[in-house]
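Something for you to look into today, if you have time. Could you write out one complete protein record for me, on any chain you like? Leave the record below and I will have a look.
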Amino acid sequence: MKRPAWNGAPPRDGEEAKARIIDAAMRCIDRHGPGKTSLSDVASELGVIRQTVYRYFPSTEELFVAVGYAALTSFLERLVDHLAGRRDPADVVVEAMAYAIEQVPKDPYLGLFLDLGRPDAFSRGATSVRAFDACRLAFARTDVDWDALGFSGDELTELLEFLLRVLLSFANDPLPGRDGADLRAFLHRWVTPALHAPAPAP
């Protein structure tokens, strides 16, 4: 017998539909892996036809980008908790980068673009305005007074862009053996001076 659409519980609106599609995509990724998950799998999981999923996400890539953004919120919550109690800005920046470098490739959702061999899609998402805004809010919740240090507005955006681009470099081309204390020492050596360097005159 054919299952009813949306497994008998239609969404109240478009936002709920999107959220349920993203949740279903995560379950399919858990079951099949990102490389073998398709919009057909997600539609079947929800009890709808593919055209219903296409209405909200025109391609698998767009759906996976949405899954990545949904996972980003959870990751940043874990990052803020991990950084709690750290007050030195260099220590916060280095530990944030090291933690992300170590954890992002292990996350089945944040790392799915890399697993699919499409770092360009991952890069576009990681360096988007939406990603910057999420990271800015997370940094604002640490125990560092970034405004007092001169990192506000464009300066903070540039700092976040620098950190994200370094993260992408490590994620796309990891160096064997550079982890733990060695990774943190490497980041401290090259990142810490940038935090204390005066900004060039416009």
User: Anything to note?
Assistant: Residues 115-123 have pLDDT under 50 and may be disordered.
